[in-house]
Design goal:
It is built from ten helices and 20 strands. It is α+β, with helices and mostly antiparallel strands.
């Protein structure tokens, strides 16, 4: 009977590293690691975890070593949460790491490594740090290891300056930025490439502030969304997408590396304005707002005009103020018709402490900056 118990399948669950087992080997008893699974993300493979935690499939291990590996993975803070689960079949151990990867983390940015491409640095980091991902949580414990690898890359070029992780300015803006202390990479030129790109002179005028302030390439990465907001959205290109920026070194003099940043942007199709209606207001007030509306049918749809109109003509109106602490809430929803490339706008005005309900037919809508696709009639 005892021999039968030792050979049976036994499941062990690690929840907060509290163990529940029956008839299993513990502590330093020799086990064989047969399998490793990662559940909850596709950004790390089982092979990444095996190499990153110094585990070896098919070789002897112990429960204590597995516990240490799981604790190390948790302390790296690569995901919102992580927990381990393993199963034993005799002396064979199968390990599963379950993670929550809802927010994916913040991008890893190499601020002033202009003599090497981002792809080369990413490949090197992945090779030397198997648990590395191009997007990591802010203040991940992997930052120290990344700094060490980047320091080696800098030293290979004969640069003695120290590599640092910016744990204040950029982390507050949702970016993991690594930079070489004392190396300047001012952006002296900004270029936008792609179909329907704005005229070069317009780009130059728009970028004057950034090219005269000694801003680094990392900061221009930060403002890519503003390029789309200011130079594409007002022309009706509401689906514009920016691809990876190209950084071109222009010179090298006394530790200063001026660069040109090229932004490849795919404009997508141009969408035109079709109509607008106001809901949640008295009939006469809605009519007066409609009379002030200057975005004409057939004109490029401009989200900035919608936002300014809501601010100037509704929120700033005396009738919209309810108290010192509460005011009307505006919810503009744009129905985006992919077939006709037209945008139909509904602006709902909600009085404080009042719930306003509207029904939407199926289609693509953008409400408050969030795009959603409705397949049935829904109430909001």
């Amino acid at each position: 009977m005892r021999k039968s118990n030792e050979g049976r399948f036994v499941r062990v669950i690690l929840l907060g590293y509290t163990l529940f087992a029956s008839g299993a080997a513990f502590g330093t008893d020799s086990l064989t690691l047969s399998k490793v699974h990662v559940v909850g993300t596709n950004r790390l493979s089982a092979d990444d975890v095996v190499r990153g935690l110094d585990l070896k499939l098919g070789e002897a291990t112990t429960q204590q070593k597995i516990l240490h590996a799981c604790e190390r993975f948790r302390q790296l803070k690569l995901f919102e949460t992580s927990r381990c689960r393993y199963s034993l079949d005799g002396r064979s151990l199968s390990l599963t790491i379950l993670v929550e990867d809802k927010w994916r983390g913040a991008p890893v940015v190499f601020d002033n490594f202009v003599w090497v491409t981002k792809q080369q640095l990413l490949a090197r980091l992945k090779h030397e740090l198997p648990l590395f991902m191009p997007e990591l949580p802010i203040h991940s414990a992997l930052a120290n290891d990344i700094t060490r690898v980047l320091q080696q890359a800098v030293a290979e070029r004969g640069i003695t300056s120290r590599v640092e992780y910016d744990d204040r300015f950029w982390t507050e803006r949702g970016m993991n930025v690594f930079f070489v202390n004392g190396i300047s990479t001012p952006v002296t030129s900004l270029q936008v490439d792609g179909e329907n790109a704005p005229p070069p002179e317009e780009v130059v005028k728009w970028s004057e502030f950034y090219t005269k302030e000694n801003f680094s390439a990392a900061r221009l990465t930060w403002i890519i969304d503003w390029v789309i907001r200011d130079l594409y959205a007002p022309r009706g290109y509401v689906r514009a997408v920016a691809r990876e920026p190209v950084i071109q070194p222009l010179d090298d003099k006394n530790g200063v590396y001026p660069v040109r940043v090229i932004l490849p942007i795919s404009s997508g199709a141009m969408f035109t304005f079709d109509s607008v209606k106001f809901e949640g207001l008295a009939k006469g007030r809605a009519a007066s707002l409609l009379a002030k509306w200057n975005l004409k049918p057939g004109a490029p749809y401009d989200p900035a005009y919608v936002k300014k109109f809501a601010s100037d003509e509704i929120l700033s109106a005396s009738w919209a103020q309810r108290s010192k602490t509460e005011s009307d809430v505006i919810r503009p929803c744009a129905k985006i018709d992919e077939a006709s490339k037209k945008v139909t706008l509904t602006i709902s005005v909600e009085v404080p402490r009042r719930t306003y309900t509207y029904h939407a037919t199926k289609g693509d809508y953008e409400c408050g900056g969030a795009v959603q696709t409705l397949t049935l009639r829904q109430a909001h």
